[in-house]
Design a protein that fits this description.
25 strands; binds pyridoxal-5'-phosphate; about 45% helix; 2 domains; Rossmann fold; ten-stranded mixed beta sheet; alpha/beta; globular; about 850 residues
């Protein structure tokens, strides 16, 4: 195929001069903001005043555009500061960024909430209403994608030169409806009404190659040259979203790539007269970034997914190398000193062979120099121990799609295995175990091993997880390179998950201990003594009550179930997966239902149980579990004898903006995964920060949460990770069920068809799974201990003073779980970036800004 240069290249303007930064900054007072919003509304968007009554769409757009100006101004200013400092950069490569909504967060971080609210009021608009019209940017499945979003917020707040790279999916995570207890997926066309936050940067378009073949020939210098020819090429067009730090003038960038067809024709097809077919074929190129794969914690091996992964890796690396060349020419001697790549799971791990290819084939570096650069710049984060989630690509498929990359992977493997053989002579079993290629009828590339071999740092996401990685999954690699392995316990950003999601609790905290916690979450410790102050407890309880009313309203609207805020709000929201054990939760609800029906209610704590989450569309058991929740809910909520004592609701379409209402309104946080299976969890941290008490297993970050808050403020149950491993042998759930009268009657009621009156056999797969001696999730094994912990929680809740005390102590102890701490650790141990403060806006001339330090 003919390769032409990017036609957009000539549009590239010269670097902005410092003149640009000598302009006085835009005003940030309410009057100036109002003027700008009005100008965008009337002139840029061309709307007349009567459009106002029609919808919130145009006022929302006009507001975002006015705020975006302030962000872009600070963004340019920040880039300038990084450039002047010649600062090292880190790049967070991730197939997922689960950003949620942007407006409220941007206003919080810019410090423009009040001014904007006032400006809009003078124009007759309501800010809260506009905030609610924004669609979630759902470009992620769950924890891994949300983590990437929290990381960006913290990096900007810490003034770290970090840039996010991802994919601009046309369709994000599907929207979930429930019809007759079944999940129905609906495409999420989140860009339908435009995305006013992003800026397209066509001048930075990159070209991505697929298919074709390689040609090996000696160059003029006698060195072997490899050309990748006859490839089918696709363009990658970047879209930039500003990422503001909290009150610090810093604005970093998230760059998302969209696929576009080249303007070239397939001449053969054209000559054959299939002009229209050849134009239509361009669709195939644009399909690459059409949709996010909705599998959480399981790989699917589809070719389109590999195309997405390579697309992200190649476009991002080319982008970074092009910027390097602009600044440093062809000298790569300091590249490793000034750049670092963090791989969010193995999804972007094509970056290892791709950086080799770009350095060797496109930038004339030797293998040795290129490998030195790769292994000094790549860092890999593992997110799961579940074997079904470990990515492998068939060598055949990989070699067809990315022929040059396969050659490089083979060469990396050959050199790596030589090193292993030198260290353990004659240990062929070890060679086979550690090889990047898993042999068999269909040989596979082990992407996690590729990432480890190519990286100088390998981290897990909670203490337990990192330890299990070193002792289990990556044991051989840990033996070879112990220094590569480290832990970085996850976190969440308190700006979104406390300051913005829970204004009432935030206000109370700030009135009490000041607002330092917004950037130093440890300061929440100062709340601990107030847990013993009855007046403070009363205010804390009043806030929780108001947040429960807000959550009850969401449940009323989305589930048509009435939650009474006097009851304990017991909440489990997360992806639906067997290892997360939503089933165990439902078994407890059935147990309470039976108790009520049997009149065993001498002391009974009223409960509202909320379960929410999406099932991967191809995950049969997860979907059946949703149906189970819905059907048990119908029976329980429809039974007049149960009344307000027990409610169960399945919340459809769990997403970031829903969690912003859920976490503040929860009393009890369900973190009940089988020990050793949840790498970290981050939902657990959001709940804790918002004053929910955890009922949980010794899994992931639960262990560290319990360490921080103390055993007396945490409802612990269940087998440990080691006990789980041991329990596998001779596990006999039938015997456990027979020996436990509570579990026995729960199973018998389910088996009687009580919850599936007109659909016989509907829950047989669930019953079978629980009764199977091969149940990997050990639901029956943990039932008794779980019920006992729930009873302790219920008893504690009856003493409202005691519960409120625990709630305060949970928030007070949540300081460790800020991504500010997590990012400081990544930076201290892996990235080693300088913090660079841009020139404060008000020093750039003219007007004094009232928003920034
Ligand atoms: C935090 C979050 C998650 C992760 O929750 P876990 O309980 O850690 O699995 C998933 N989805 C959304 C929308 C979230 O906000």
């Amino acid at each position: 195929m003919k390769r032409t240069s990017n036609p957009l290249k000539p549009l590239l303007v010269s670097q902005p001069t410092d003149k640009l930064f000598e302009q006085p900054p835009l005003g940030v007072d309410a009057d100036t903001l109002a003027l700008d919003v009005r100008r965008y509304f009337a002139l840029f968007l061309g709307r007349y005043k009567h459009s106002r009554g029609r919808s919130t769409h145009y006022p929302y757009q006009a507001t975002v555009l006015a705020i975006r100006d302030r962000l872009n101004e600070r963004l340019n200013n920040t880039r300038h500061a990084y450039e002047v400092a010649g600062a090292k950069h880190a790049y967070y490569l991730s197939l997922e960024f689960l950003m949620g909504r942007t407006l409220n967060n941007a206003l919080l971080n810019l410090g423009l909430g009040e001014e904007t609210e006032q400006a809009l009021r003078t124009l007759g608009f309501d800010l809260d209403e506009l905030i609610d019209t924004e669609a979630d940017a759902g470009l992620g499945n769950g924890g891994l994608g949300r983590l990437a979003a929290c990381f960006l917020d913290s990096c900007a707040t810490l003034q770290l030169p970090v840039m996010g790279y991802g994919i601009r999916y046309e369709y994000g995570m599907f929207r979930q409806h429930i019809e007759n207890g079944q999940q129905v997926e609906e495409p999420d066309h989140w860009l339908r009404n435009g995305n006013p936050w992003e800026l397209e940067k066509p001048e930075h378009t990159r070209r991505i190659q697929y298919y074709g073949r390689t040609v090996h020939q000696s160059g003029p210098d006698g060195r072997l040259r490899v050309a990748w020819v006859d490839s089918h090429d696709v363009l990658a067009v970047p879209y930039d979203t500003p990422i503001p730090g909290y009150w610090n003038n810093t604005v970093n960038v998230l760059r998302l790539w969209k696929a576009a067809a080249t303007d070239e024709f397939d001449l053969d097809e054209f000559n054959a007269g299939s002009y229209t077919e050849s134009v239509a074929a361009k669709n195939a190129a644009e399909n690459i970034t059409m949709v996010l794969y909705p599998n959480d914690a399981s790989e699917n091996g589809k070719e389109l997914r590999l195309r997405q992964q390579y697309f992200l890796a190649s476009a991002s690396l080319q982008d970074i190398l092009a910027r390097w060349e602009d600044q440093h020419g062809k000298d790569f001697s300091r590249f490793a000193e000034l750049n670092c790549f963090q791989l969010n799971d193995t999804h972007p791990s094509c970056a290892v062979p791709e950086l080799m290819r770009l350095l060797i084939d496109e930038h004339d570096q030797s293998w040795e120099t290129a490998w030195d650069i790769v292994t000094r710049t790549m860092a890999y984060t593992n997110h799961t121990l579940l074997p079904e989630a470990l990515e492998k690509w068939s060598v055949r498929l990989f070699g067809q799609l990315l022929p040059r990359l396969l050659e490089i992977v083979y060469e990396i493997n050959a050199r790596f295995l030589t090193e292993v053989a030198r260290r353990w002579p004659g240990d062929n079993a070890r060679l086979a175990r550690m090889s990047l290629i898993e042999e068999g009828p269909e040989p596979q590339i082990r992407m996690a091993y590729l990432a480890i071999v190519g990286s100088f740092s390998v981290n897990g996401v909670a203490e337990l997880h990192s330890r299990l990685l070193q002792q289990g999954l990556f044991r051989d690699f840990h033996e070879l390179w112990p220094w590569k392995f480290n832990n970085k316990t996850n976190g969440v950003t308190q700006r979104r998950w406390l300051a913005s999601a829970n204004p009432l609790q935030s206000q109370l905290i700030t009135e009490t201990i000041g607002d330092g916690w917004i950037t130093r979450l440890d300061e929440l410790r100062k709340l601990a003594p107030l847990a013993d102050d009855p007046a403070f407890r009363a205010r804390w309880a009043a806030v929780k009550r108001a947040n429960k009313e807000r959550l009850a309203e969401l449940v009323r609207k989305d589930c048509q179930v009435e939650f009474n805020p006097d009851a304990m709000f017991d909440v489990q929201v997360k992806r639906i997966h067997e290892y997360k054990r939503q089933l165990l939760n439902v078994l407890h609800v059935v147990h309470l239902y039976i108790r009520i029906k049997q009149g065993e209610i001498g002391t009974f704590t009223p409960r509202c149980v909320l379960i929410g989450g999406k099932a991967a569309p191809g995950y049969f058991m997860a979907k059946r579990i949703i149906t189970f929740v819905c059907k048990v809910a119908e029976v329980v909520n429809g039974d007049p004898t149960v009344r307000d004592r027990l409610k169960l609701a399945f919340l459809p379409d769990y997403r970031v903006s829903a969690m912003e209402i859920i976490a503040p309104g929860s009393d009890l946080s369900e973190q009940i995964s089988t020990a050793g299976k949840e790498a970290s969890g981050t939902g657990n941290m959001k709940f804790m920060m918002n004053g929910a008490v955890t009922i949980g297993t010794l899994d992931g970050a639960n262990i560290e949460i319990r360490e921080e808050v103390g055993d007396e403020n945490f409802f612990l149950f269940g087998l440990t990770a080691r006990e789980v491993e041991d329990a596998r042998n001779g596990y006999n759930p039938d015997a456990i069920i027979a020996a436990d009268p509570d579990l026995k009657r729960v199973m018998e009621l389910i088996e009687s068809g009580h919850f599936n009156q007109f659909q016989p056999g509907l829950f047989d797969p669930i019953i079978k799974a629980i009764r199977s001696p091969h149940d990997p999730w050990l639901v029956a094994a943990d039932f008794r201990s779980y019920i006992d912990a729930q009873d302790r929680a219920a008893e504690t809740y009856r003493d409202q003073d005691r519960w409120t005390r625990m709630s305060i102590l949970n928030t007070a102890a949540s300081g460790k779980f800020s991504t500010d701490r997590t990012m400081e650790e990544y930076n201290a141990d892996i990235w080693k970036l300088p913090k660079v403060a841009p020139t404060p806006m008000q020093q750039l001339g003219g007007q004094v800004s009232n928003c920034c330090i």
